[in-house]
Design goal:
Organism: Tardiphaga alba
Radius of gyration: 20 Å
Structural class: mainly alpha
Helix content: 55-70%
Protein name: Branched-chain amino acid ABC transporter permease
Largest sheet: 2 strands, antiparallel
Main location: membrane
Subcellular location: Cell membrane
Shape: globular
InterPro entries: ABC_transp_permease, LivM-like
Length: 327
């Protein structure tokens, strides 16, 4: 009894947001990212480029998690495992002299998809708090695995000998080139996820979020759609790990820890759940707040925590909600 009812006629599924005002904010965000290096041509730019690159990498990971939480109501506390997988795929290959970016990306994609399929197939057999705990368990399993890799630094992490190369060129060694590669990948991922969310698949996913029983009753299999979303999210998070390893030229088991997954959830709440550009705004606010507060105290999280609570209590929809924005 698969797909017996026309999706467009299903009342449980919300229609995609209209074009118009909703497109202005994302355009402004990406225009600002594109213009940052141009605005810094007259002065030193390495620090600002590093910070904004870090924002975009965090935004990429947060957007991928938003597909799960904001659109699929699948709260994962192990999402950072995919970032760690991507980073370690780069570092391990580089330690064996394989610095070609295409080979590394192929490894990142393969490991992320396999890990997502295996862990997602098991995790999605559960619901609610059980799903949260099992994703946390898988993330911690990968964390302890990376700490045990003595040949690749173990607890101390591993320093990359060089950034990835493409067609033999080492252009990513240049911070400005690294910035625009990150910008291009973030923009591509945003457009891909926006298309996914606005598509028939995205409407089914939102319908499952609202009422999985009704969606199953009209002929859609929630498990298959949720697993597909889980794999897409894991793949994009893996690519953010690829970028993170190249930007920092260092990998560590801390990349896979549950605290990093918690940070991604903080970013989504801060920027606005269920909004792709809200994830970008949240990443910018989180990174800049952490950077500013850490200059005054090493216990900056104790200040950031109450700020987040106030936003949750009084600003509906996070930062994106302040602009009246949606996905």
């Amino acid at each position: 009894m698969n797909n017996l009812v026309d999706l467009d006629a299903a009342p449980a599924i919300a229609a995609p947001p209209r074009m118009g005002r909703a497109i202005i904010l994302p355009v402004l965000i990406f225009a600002c990212f594109a213009a940052v290096p141009l605005a810094l041509l007259l002065g030193p730019q390495s620090y600002v480029l590093a910070v904004v690159t870090r924002i975009m990498i965090l935004a990429l990971g947060a957007m991928s998690l938003d597909l799960l939480i904001g659109y699929g109501a699948m709260i994962s506390f192990g999402h950072a495992a995919f970032i760690g997988l991507g980073a370690y795929s780069v570092a391990i290959l580089a330690s064996h002299g394989i610095t070609d970016g295409f080979v590394q990306l192929a490894a990142v994609i393969a490991t992320s998809i396999i890990f997502a399929l295996v862990t997602g197939a098991i995790s999605l057999r559960t619901k609610g708090v059980y799903f949260i705990m099992i994703t946390l368990a898988f993330g911690q399993m990968l964390f302890f695995l990376t700490t045990s890799l003595a040949a690749y630094g173990g607890d101390d992490g591993l320093t990359l000998a060089a950034r990835s190369t493409f067609f033999g060129a080492k252009f990513m060694k240049n911070d400005l080139a690294m910035y625009y590669v990150t910008f291009g990948i973030l923009l591509g991922a945003y457009l891909l996820l926006r298309a996914v969310v606005a598509s028939r698949f995205g409407r089914v996913l939102r319908g499952i979020r609202e009422n999985p029983v009704r969606m199953e009753a009209i002929g859609f299999a929630p498990y298959r759609y949720q697993l597909t979303a889980y794999v897409i999210a894991g793949l994009i998070a893996g690519v953010s790990g690829f970028l993170l390893a190249n930007q920092t030229e260092f990998v560590s088991p801390a990349y896979t820890a549950w605290q990093r997954s918690g940070e991604l959830i903080f970013v989504l709440v801060l920027g606005g759940l269920g909004s792709l550009h809200g994830a970008i705004l949240g990443a910018a606010a989180f990174t800049l707040l952490a950077d500013i507060l850490s200059h005054y105290t090493e216990h900056w999280a104790m200040i950031f925590g109450p700020i987040l609570i106030l936003i949750v209590l009084f600003v509906r929809g996070g930062i994106n909600g302040l602009f009246g924005g949606k996905s």
